[in-house]
Amino acid sequence: MQYSRSWRLLHWLIALCVIALVPVGLLIEARTEANLWDRTTDILYGLHKTLGFSVLVLMLLRIGCKLWLQAPAYPDTLSRRQILAAKSLHHLFYVLLILVPLLGWAGVTAFPALMIIPGVELPPMPGIPRDPVLAERLFGVHGAFALLLALLALGHIVAALWHRFVLHDEVFQRMGFRHLSDKEHKS
What we know:
With 187 residues, the protein is an all-alpha fold. The chain has 5 helices and 2 strands; from the N terminus they run αααββαα.
């Protein structure tokens, strides 16, 4: 059994955003440390803020899916411990995929640096004062949690590929790749 199309679409849109956000964030950090403040840095910041805010909005939609749609059952080949580990990891993903963008948004509100492109700004986060010291702290926590999220995502990818190519169970197909296994079984 697979997740619904809307759930799978949200999964892959969020995954693509995160895959783009991590290297852009690391590049921004490197340019900031090198004191490179130019048009490229501005574009990278704008892209990072746009994708980060998009992840926040997409995650709210995904939580709606989780509340209204039932997730498919795990394959019978998984132990209770494996299912508990998978569910725990997914809950941690949900927390981080909400918390990391919120911390970034709070940071750019406190700095303030809400502009995405000239003439387009994120709305300021309510209740966050303009305070560069607070902004630095928020950006530090944002970065640490973003790296944790990246490491967990890498582990998630490795685990998915392990299920697909080593265990050959149905875990990988739950998120939209059933057609791959169907073609292989026919040949």
